[in-house]
Each structure stands twice: as C-alpha cells, then as structure tokens.
Amino acid sequence: MKTLIWSLATALAISGGAACKKSESEKAGTEVKKAQERVEDNREDVRDEQKDVRKEQKDVAEEQRDVAKEQAELSKSQADLTAAQQRYVASVKERLARIDAKLAVLDSRTDAKAKEKAAELRVRRNEIATRVDHLDAKASANWEGFKKDVDDSFDKLEKDIDDLK
C-alpha cells in the first residue's frame, strides 16, 4: 500500500509537473505569437512611414520646381522693370534736352531779368537731372512716387519756362 500511495503521489507529481510545464509552454507560445504580431504591426508601420516619406519627397520635389518657376518669373519681372526704368530715363533725358534748348533760348536774351530767371530754372533742371541719376536707389522703394515727383517737377519747370517766352 505504501508503494501504491507512493506511486500515486509520484504519478500526481509527474502529471502536475507536466501540467505546469504545458501551461508555461502555452504562455511562452502565446508570448511568441504576441511578439510576432507586434513585429508584423511594426513592419507595417515602417512600410507606411516609408510610403509617407516617398510621398513627401515627391511633394518637396514639386515644391522645388514651383520655387524654380517663381524665381524665373521674378527674374523676368526684374528684367522688365529694369527695361521700363531705362525707357523712362531715356524719355526723361529727351525732356531734359528739350528744356536745355528752351533755356538756351532764354540765355540768348539780352535782358538781365530773363538771364536771371534762366539761371534759376537751370538750377531746378539740374535738381531733376540729379534725381534721375539716382533712379536705382529711389525707384526700387517707391517707383510710382518717384516717377510722379519727377514728372510733376518737369511739368512745373516746363510751365515756368513757357511762361517766360
């Protein structure tokens, strides 16, 4: 009987130990499965992020093309502005030449008052010429204001010259 009890106890111990080992292996198997699922989830996340990076790189490339296009348009606009300013300066110089011709006529008069007035008008003419010579510094900041000021000065000067005739 003692042997039977001992055999029974041993059998229970063995079966209980096997049951413990089975449950530990099930736990370990479950942990492996969960770890595999996390690895797969992380792989998918990495693939998704790589797709996002490729899309963003494509977007950056498109934006860089847009910037290059805008820079080309800016360069063209700046060239157009420079050409327009040069045409304006040319027209101003023509006006100065016409004023010089009128002032020469005034200088040719013999009366002192006409010569004095011609000298005053020449000073104003030279002031306009000086402003036009500094066109680059002024025009960029406020082209319309600069142009209006020069044109108004010309108009007043020409009117004053014509009034002396």
What's the alpha carbon Rg, rounded to whole Å?
47 Å
Please report the number of helical segments. Answer: 3
Number of strands: 0
Cα separation of the termini: 152 Å
Name the structural class: mainly alpha
The largest sheet is: none
Runs in which pLDDT lies below 50 for 5 or more consecutive residues are: 11-19
Mean pLDDT: 82
Shape descriptor: rod-shaped
The proportion of residues in beta strands is under 5%
Helical proportion, percent range: over 70%
What does this 3D model show about the protein?
The protein has helices at 2-107, 112-133, 135-164. It has 165 residues and is mostly helical. Helix 1 packs antiparallel against helix 2 (112-133), helix 1 (2-107) runs parallel beside helix 3 and helix 2 (112-133) packs antiparallel against helix 3. The chain is rod-shaped, with a radius of gyration of 47 Å. It is built from three helices and no strands. The chain starts with a helix and ends with a helix. The model is unreliable at 11-19 (pLDDT under 50). 96% of the residues lie in helices and 0% in strands. The longest helix has 106 residues, at 2-107.
